[in-house]
Hints:
CATH class of the largest domain: Alpha Beta
Number of helices: 8
CATH architecture of the largest domain: 3-Layer(aba) Sandwich
Order of helices and strands: HEHEEHEHEHHHH
Number of domains: 2
Radius of gyration: 20 Å
Oligomer: single chain
Amino acid sequence: MAQQLPVDFEFRANQTFNDFFPGTHCEIVTHLQQCIAGQGELQIFLWGQSGMGKTHLLQACCHQAQQQNLSSFYFDLAQANLPAPALLRGLDQYDVVCFDNIEALAGNAIWEKAFFNFFNLQRDLGHKLILSACSPPNELAIQLPDLKTRLNWGLTLKMQLLIDSDKIATLIFKAKKMGFEIAPQAGRFLLIHYARDLSSLWALLEKLDKASLAAKRKLTVPFLKQILDQERNNNGE
């Protein structure tokens, strides 16, 4: 490959391993940390439904790599327009490469071939490759047989669906990291009356934090009702 390094990506400061509530995913976190530390698999394929924290974990891998003076790169392939495969040029020089939503390149013959070549270079150099997808490698619509085989190499890890008690514990953990408290009763109220997916709940926490600071009130259930009612009125619901 030509020595053309890809563009830099922006670290998400709050998406480290310390900011991730492991819950039932302690084993996954351990495998990822060991991979970056050079004590585990060179390749990890992480899959599960959207909103379960895959992006957070891939970003966390890059943060850990940086702390260990390793070069790292993250890219989300699930964008409106898939970039040209030229993005891969020089990427094999990075110690750690993380690609989110790898299913986005499925069926694109040019991308599949380019990624196959990159994969071989990355592995030959002993560098780490961490991928995420919504389904396991065998269920991806990859047309290039050799690439599909490569994606099954290494370690495949499934992120499990969180039960409500885990989601509430995650909410409490996330709020504490943001600098405020949310009671279990309030967390249960949000799951019942607002949203059940973590991505929506994280966005809501940002709004609740600001509302709590502005009103100088704790996030009690009555206060949450007031905030959510105001939001619905503002949205014309």
